[in-house]
């Protein structure tokens, strides 16, 4: 019932020239993808990449979005600005934004709501640290983050959103949760949504795994019943690797 969604987060990589080369490689490799495909370049690449993706099955995502429509917010980008250049998705609350740039559950909620109001699909990230996992509070942390991120959303807005479970200890480290652990935690997230919005809504929400999914482990992870896709970091920067994930 839930269409898988694979999103590539380029993070702070790729000049416009490099982005153009990568997209030229990706378009033929991904044209027959059965899942929804999104790539999220840095801001300086978005307008160029958006033009290159016109007429393809690859959608354009941003790595963040501000909650205000305009104003004195140096370094931020509004949803309307993103919409104007063809952005359809936006990552919100990535752990690197939370860790390095002071994102909170409250700002994640505001950013996600602004995206939805502009008809941009938010990819809302939640996840625990290694210390939290070892302390046995993973379920509490991810449930709290999920419900806080969705605070004030209607059921329809929840269904339009994508959740990305990204265990912080597995991002960029090469470490990956076992298939079963990832599936179990994503089920916890889905149950938290069901507790507020009901099981029908929870069953419709797509929840990605975002902890170092790559060409080697994508097939097994995507075989898990609760996992609806991946938020891909390093593997999204190489066309062959990303293609293997997309064609899991």
CATH-scheme architecture of the domain at 5-90 and 103-121 and 171-184 and 209-246: Alpha-Beta Barrel
Total number of beta strands: 8
Instruction: Enumerate the spans where pLDDT stays under 50 for 5 or more consecutive residues.
Output: none
Tally of alpha and pi helices = 12
Q: What is the SS-derived class? A: alpha/beta
The proportion of residues forming helix, as a percent range, comes to 40-55%
Whole-number mean pLDDT: 96
The CATH superfamily of the domain at 5-90 and 103-121 and 171-184 and 209-246 is Aldolase class I
Fold-level CATH name of the domain at 5-90 and 103-121 and 171-184 and 209-246: TIM Barrel
What is the 3D shape?
globular
The helix/strand series, from N terminus to C terminus, equals EHEHEHEHHEHHHEHHEHEH
Rg measurement, Å: 17 Å
The CA-CA distance between the termini, in Å, is 17 Å
Roughly what fraction of the amino acids lie in strands? 5-15%
Q: Biggest sheet: strands, sense, closure? A: 8 strands, parallel
CATH uppermost class of the domain at 5-90 and 103-121 and 171-184 and 209-246? Alpha Beta
Strand order within the widest sheet? 7-6-5-4-3-2-1-8
